[in-house]
Protein backbone atom coordinates (compact mmCIF):
# COMPACT_ATOMS: atom_id res chain seq x y z
CA UNK A 1 0.00 0.00 0.00
CA UNK A 2 1.38 3.41 -1.03
CA UNK A 3 1.70 6.11 1.62
CA UNK A 4 2.01 9.87 1.35
CA UNK A 5 5.63 9.51 2.51
CA UNK A 6 6.24 7.13 -0.43
CA UNK A 7 4.73 9.64 -2.87
CA UNK A 8 7.00 12.38 -1.49
CA UNK A 9 9.98 10.56 -3.01
CA UNK A 10 8.48 10.75 -6.53
CA UNK A 11 9.67 13.42 -8.98
CA UNK A 12 6.07 14.64 -9.54
CA UNK A 13 2.84 14.06 -7.65
CA UNK A 14 -0.67 14.65 -8.97
CA UNK A 15 -2.68 16.45 -6.30
CA UNK A 16 -6.43 16.41 -6.89
CA UNK A 17 -8.41 19.16 -5.18
CA UNK A 18 -12.19 19.33 -5.30
CA UNK A 19 -14.58 22.01 -6.51
CA UNK A 20 -17.71 22.84 -4.51
CA UNK A 21 -19.72 20.50 -6.77
CA UNK A 22 -17.30 17.64 -5.98
CA UNK A 23 -15.51 17.63 -9.33
CA UNK A 24 -11.84 16.70 -8.92
CA UNK A 25 -9.14 18.88 -10.47
CA UNK A 26 -5.73 17.14 -10.71
CA UNK A 27 -2.50 19.15 -10.88
CA UNK A 28 1.06 17.77 -11.20
CA UNK A 29 3.39 19.40 -8.64
CA UNK A 30 6.77 19.01 -7.04
CA UNK A 31 6.62 17.48 -3.58
CA UNK A 32 9.14 17.02 -0.79
CA UNK A 33 8.95 14.75 2.26
CA UNK A 34 7.91 16.33 5.56
CA UNK A 35 7.64 13.72 8.30
CA UNK A 36 4.68 11.41 7.59
CA UNK A 37 3.40 13.90 5.01
CA UNK A 38 4.70 16.02 2.19
CA UNK A 39 4.87 19.67 1.21
CA UNK A 40 4.13 21.34 -2.10
CA UNK A 41 4.52 24.95 -3.18
CA UNK A 42 2.27 27.00 -5.47
CA UNK A 43 1.26 30.57 -6.37
CA UNK A 44 -0.96 32.02 -3.63
CA UNK A 45 -3.54 32.99 -6.26
CA UNK A 46 -3.81 29.45 -7.70
CA UNK A 47 -7.27 27.95 -7.87
CA UNK A 48 -6.05 24.90 -5.97
CA UNK A 49 -5.39 27.13 -2.95
CA UNK A 50 -8.97 28.41 -3.09
CA UNK A 51 -10.33 24.89 -3.44
CA UNK A 52 -8.26 23.70 -0.44
CA UNK A 53 -9.63 26.56 1.67
CA UNK A 54 -13.15 25.31 0.84
CA UNK A 55 -12.35 21.59 1.18
CA UNK A 56 -9.01 20.36 2.58
CA UNK A 57 -9.58 16.77 1.41
CA UNK A 58 -7.27 15.83 -1.49
CA UNK A 59 -6.13 12.71 -3.31
CA UNK A 60 -2.60 12.05 -4.53
CA UNK A 61 -0.99 9.79 -7.11
CA UNK A 62 2.48 9.50 -8.58
CA UNK A 63 2.65 11.10 -12.03
CA UNK A 64 4.94 12.46 -14.72
CA UNK A 65 5.51 16.10 -15.71
CA UNK A 66 2.36 16.10 -17.85
CA UNK A 67 0.17 14.68 -15.06
CA UNK A 68 -0.13 11.13 -16.44
CA UNK A 69 -0.77 9.17 -13.24
CA UNK A 70 0.36 5.73 -12.19
CA UNK A 71 0.07 3.60 -9.08
CA UNK A 72 -2.30 3.80 -6.14
CA UNK A 73 -4.37 6.77 -5.10
CA UNK A 74 -3.81 8.04 -1.55
CA UNK A 75 -6.22 10.25 0.39
CA UNK A 76 -4.84 13.22 2.27
CA UNK A 77 -5.73 16.40 4.09
CA UNK A 78 -4.15 19.68 2.94
CA UNK A 79 -3.19 22.65 5.11
CA UNK A 80 -2.10 26.05 3.79
CA UNK A 81 1.08 27.09 5.56
CA UNK A 82 2.07 30.37 7.21
CA UNK A 83 4.81 32.56 5.74
CA UNK A 84 7.46 31.00 8.03
CA UNK A 85 6.28 27.47 7.27
CA UNK A 86 6.19 28.29 3.54
CA UNK A 87 9.86 29.32 3.71
CA UNK A 88 10.64 25.99 5.38
CA UNK A 89 8.72 24.17 2.59
CA UNK A 90 10.76 26.07 -0.03
CA UNK A 91 13.91 24.86 1.72
CA UNK A 92 12.72 21.23 1.61
CA UNK A 93 11.93 21.57 -2.11
CA UNK A 94 15.28 23.26 -2.86
CA UNK A 95 17.05 20.41 -1.07
CA UNK A 96 15.17 17.71 -2.99
CA UNK A 97 15.30 19.32 -6.46
CA UNK A 98 18.83 20.72 -6.23
CA UNK A 99 19.96 23.40 -8.69
CA UNK A 100 16.71 23.24 -10.66
CA UNK A 101 14.69 23.77 -7.47
CA UNK A 102 16.86 26.69 -6.35
CA UNK A 103 16.55 28.40 -9.74
CA UNK A 104 12.78 27.94 -10.02
CA UNK A 105 12.15 29.16 -6.46
CA UNK A 106 14.50 32.13 -6.92
CA UNK A 107 12.78 33.07 -10.19
CA UNK A 108 9.41 32.88 -8.51
CA UNK A 109 10.56 35.08 -5.60
CA UNK A 110 11.84 37.68 -8.06
CA UNK A 111 8.63 37.57 -10.10
CA UNK A 112 6.02 37.26 -7.32
CA UNK A 113 7.84 38.24 -4.12
CA UNK A 114 7.90 36.04 -1.01
CA UNK A 115 4.18 36.47 -0.33
CA UNK A 116 3.24 35.47 -3.90
CA UNK A 117 3.53 31.76 -3.17
CA UNK A 118 2.37 29.49 -0.38
CA UNK A 119 3.41 26.13 0.92
CA UNK A 120 0.86 23.39 1.46
CA UNK A 121 1.39 20.45 3.81
CA UNK A 122 -0.50 17.26 3.00
CA UNK A 123 -0.87 14.62 5.68
CA UNK A 124 -2.67 11.26 5.67
CA UNK A 125 -6.46 11.57 5.83
CA UNK A 126 -8.24 10.42 8.97
From TrEMBL:
InterPro entries xrefs: F420H2_bilvrd_red/Heme_oxyg, PPOX_F420-dep_Rv2061_put, Pyridox_Oxase_N, Split_barrel_FMN-bd
Superkingdom of origin organism: Bacteria
Alphabetical keyword list: Oxidoreductase
Domain Pyridoxamine 5'-phosphate oxidase N-terminal: 7-124
Any one Gene Ontology cellular component term annotated for this protein: cytosol
Single GO MF annotation: oxidoreductase activity, acting on the CH-CH group of donors
The protein's name in its UniProt record: Pyridoxamine 5'-phosphate oxidase N-terminal domain-containing protein
Source organism of the structure: Planobispora takensis
Amino acid sequence: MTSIADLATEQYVSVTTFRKDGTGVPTPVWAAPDGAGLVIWTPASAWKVRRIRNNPEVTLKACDLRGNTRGEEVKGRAEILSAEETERARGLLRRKYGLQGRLVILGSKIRRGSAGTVGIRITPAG
